[in-house]
């Protein structure tokens, strides 16, 4: 019998790390030792994983020695510095940050889409896509396998936890402030009520939607919008795919939603799309508006699959489908996909 | 000098009626008598318009006699019944409901788009479009005049006041309930917190977005989504225009936002689009993300124009623009457009 590999969770004390420890405790246990690693200021804390209190150790060369698979759940600059160190110590790295996603020497992998790509890793690193791409890609990929996608126009409605725990705290604080204020219908009422409590966002998120996330990239596009395009092209191996994405932050704590208009090379029918989505791994079809069945972020939060509903064929284009998908940005959008990739690598041992 | 016509405001005590009385008090005064009309249970109330307390009278044939222009700000069934009565008494009707919008004998008019259509009214009725169409049409129409629009893919983020005052009350109640609850990250947490307080919506609106508004129409499309398509085609006089619209209710009190992907017959540039939008009546261009300038509903509420930002040329299609527009659904989206139409008719007297 093959030995059970050693796993390191780097960034165990963060928001995604907390979800990862839950996930590792819930899924089939393929791991020998699980080592929890974080910044020096979190070292010594004890966190539960697989029912055992485990002491967090500080990120260091020593902490990465003797590790078979290292999950990196840290900001991109930390991953860029330390992932190569882990590789040099013999580990395979699965990175959840943006540091390596578009690196030609690093596969970008979603197990439901391109599972075999995980084995082609010349740099010893496998990357997991961003949470907004992950909210839609399993659904789009399943339809692509049948109809061949040609163009995507998407509007992503992003939860505040996509900006980290500080995003969650900002929305909670803002909601308390607007609740205590008798808001009129004048411009700036919400801004006045929340004062300097914008948190990580460029405008109020309470009682508002904000058409901006990431940094300014090129020609007015944000980094997050271009990332959705680049990651989708790489995941589907369609380097010329036409993608227009608009990111909008919405007052939702966790779970991203995406309004998708997908055009295909072949004609589509709702019936066939339903059949595909109903039988695709990682997808739940929830599409009966008359019965109140369509996904919403508050209903899907905490669950693993991508939920899809509102499946319609475009009235004026027999090759296009409109869909609405929701997925938990901390689970499949981050921790779960990373854990699935680590498990795929564990099967090599 | 021509005489000043008599105006009746039918539905003066509703949410749109309240905004209409403000607007009539703020704009150039072209009216003689302004008569306030509402349901019998509101008769006798006094409301301020043009600085004068004015008694509300009950809707009746007598209340519509001697009226030159009648604004209908009432539900579609009431408008369907009473607008023809007003016409039979000699009034021109401007209707804000959906009752006549798609009637071939009734012009659908936005003054910035098709002002001359207001004079061609064989039934004596002029219709104002729905609030979601109005949130985007002035912007799209201005760009169409230069580039010739070919296809629209839009995701509309609709404020709760689009569902009436009951929508506003439901969101306020729900926000208070979720504020008092320590919400976890489990599915259904928000539903449990708000209990049976859904109001007019099929799912929670607090801490959520809901991809549904209107009724089920055909092939999975909602009535509101198909209305955006039909109204846009009629307003732009493009009966074959391809339109895919998805409506999503968001936890915003007032002002609709629309994420627009517009494809044109001609190539576009952001520079030329900026020039057009910066000089179009009824439009404010607010587009400098680096300086934090993009429209949000909380910032534009209470203002008259359509605000537009995030103007980008599609990375993969030189004929397509992506935009984000916001407009107050109670002002331009309802009361203001109706008032503008009434003023255009008043100029005939």
Automatic annotation (TrEMBL), chains A, B:
Documented EC number(s): 1.2.1.11
* Substrates-to-products reaction catalysed: L-aspartate 4-semialdehyde + phosphate + NADP(+) = 4-phospho-L-aspartate + NADPH + H(+)
Where would I find the Semialdehyde dehydrogenase NAD-binding domain in this sequence?
6-121
Xref: SUPFAM superfamilies: Glyceraldehyde-3-phosphate dehydrogenase-like, C-terminal domain, NAD(P)-binding Rossmann-fold domains
Gene3D superfamilies, sorted? Dihydrodipicolinate Reductase, domain 2, NAD(P)-binding Rossmann-like Domain
Q: Does the keyword Membrane apply?
A: no
InterPro entries documented for this protein:
Asp-semialdehyde_DH_CS (IPR000319), Asp_semialdehyde_DH_beta (IPR005986), NAD(P)-bd_dom_sf (IPR036291), Semialdehyde_DH_NAD-bd (IPR000534), Semialdhyde_DH_dimer_dom (IPR012280)
Sorted keywords for this record are: Amino-acid biosynthesis, Diaminopimelate biosynthesis, Lysine biosynthesis, Methionine biosynthesis, NADP, Oxidoreductase, Threonine biosynthesis
Molecular functions (GO terms) = aspartate-semialdehyde dehydrogenase activity; NAD binding; NADP binding; protein dimerization activity
Active site as annotated: 131 (acyl-thioester intermediate), 256 (proton acceptor)
Broadest EC class? oxidoreductase
Q: In which pathway does it act?
A: Amino-acid biosynthesis; L-lysine biosynthesis via DAP pathway; (S)-tetrahydrodipicolinate from L-aspartate: step 2/4; Amino-acid biosynthesis; L-methionine biosynthesis via de novo pathway; L-homoserine from L-aspartate: step 2/3; Amino-acid biosynthesis; L-threonine biosynthesis; L-threonine from L-aspartate: step 2/5
Name a single GO biological process: methionine biosynthetic process
Q: Does the keyword Magnesium apply?
A: no
Give the similarity note.
Answer: Belongs to the aspartate-semialdehyde dehydrogenase family.
State the oligomer form and interacting partners.
Answer: Homodimer.
Name it.
Answer: Aspartate-semialdehyde dehydrogenase
